[in-house]
Amino acid sequence: MVGMTVPEIEAGAVPDDVYLLDVREPDEWQAGHAPAAVHIPLGTLQQRVDEIPAEVPVYVVCRIGGRSAQAAAWLNHVGREAVNVGGGMLSWAAAGRPMVAENGGQPYVA
């Protein structure tokens, strides 16, 4: 998969009603994530791929875009339609997109 190009979208341009997959680690997720995002850490993605709907595009996000690019490349490789969210949750927060924290506190990007 080295050298694969992955479709990418800026965080501010991600439509509101898409399947958003967050592949960060649990502590990052708990600190702050998009309200409608689904959390499947990158390390468990291959085992949990059947939890992701096959009939819709998947928008993949991480902290800055590296892990999500890997995840999107793998999903595309196995026949899914996946788009990387460029800049990750850092760009998501900078674009003023909504975020929630698991502990009910002020969300932030860990």
UniProtKB/TrEMBL annotation:
SUPFAM superfamilies: Rhodanese/Cell cycle control phosphatase
Stated name of the protein: Rhodanese-like domain-containing protein
Domain Rhodanese residues, every copy: 14-101
CDD domains: RHOD
